[in-house]
Design goal:
alpha+beta; four-stranded mixed beta sheet; globular; 127 residues; 13% strand; 6 helices; Glutaredoxin
Amino acid sequence: MPIIYYDANCVYCYNYAIWLIQNGLSRRYQFAELQGETAQNLFENYPETKQYDSVILQEGDHFEYKSDAITTLITTLTNYKWIGILLHLTPKPLRDLGYQLFADNRDKMWKTHWHQPNAYEQSFFID
């Protein structure tokens, strides 16, 4: 099963995970906290992943980071596939710049709340 590692201390990251689920993310995906036990196993087995404190998409031995991971995930959503394709057509350095600008400034932007997951949403989270 593919695993999506996310920053559990980031309300935007968590709510993005919920948004993916609510918009048809396949049941084959699971979410794990970058601060959790599953991620610690990842970092031990794949030390090169430790340099990323951003979203990581793991499918077997294949990894995607930052905007590549976001683009791939959005492309899996039936109603948003076109956005994923447009993002994929955007040059990677530009996508990663946008990703990094958002990540660096997320605490200075608008305020949001932590979504309370229902049982179905919670079933995607492994730790």
